[in-house]
Amino acid sequence: MSKIVLTYTGTTKNQSLKIRNRETFIKEVLNCFPESELIITVKKKGRKRSLLQNNLYWAVYVPEITKALINNGYAGFTQLDVHHYLKNKFNSELSSDKNGEIIEIGTTTTQLTRTEFAEYMIRIKTWAKDALDINIPEPNTQAEMQLK
Hints:
alpha+beta, 2 domains, two-stranded antiparallel sheet, two-stranded antiparallel ribbon, 4 helices, globular
């Protein structure tokens, strides 16, 4: 099973729609989905997650959760493993194979807007407090660090 998602950009101006690389878009759609019913989704382009959000995620959220999982007996987790776990748990989509079996697949976080990524981080922080009993510090606050 393979889930194909095509992403193209465009603009609207003066009551008209311009799709960038229109010819390529049409060829790719026809090649990937011959004789198919389609769902076409259009959304306003937002600014991607900020560097500050990304740094906070990788420097605080992922290491704190990795440490908590290890302290709770889940040995062998790397920070990349934890990232994959988090995106599967909090940034996933439902997909189905040709037999109709529904599965949940974690999707990339790199394309999330600033608002979407902030919501993603709130879901993680809430879960970390409830499931792991850890408080992930807010940005620009001092946290006590234990050096070993």
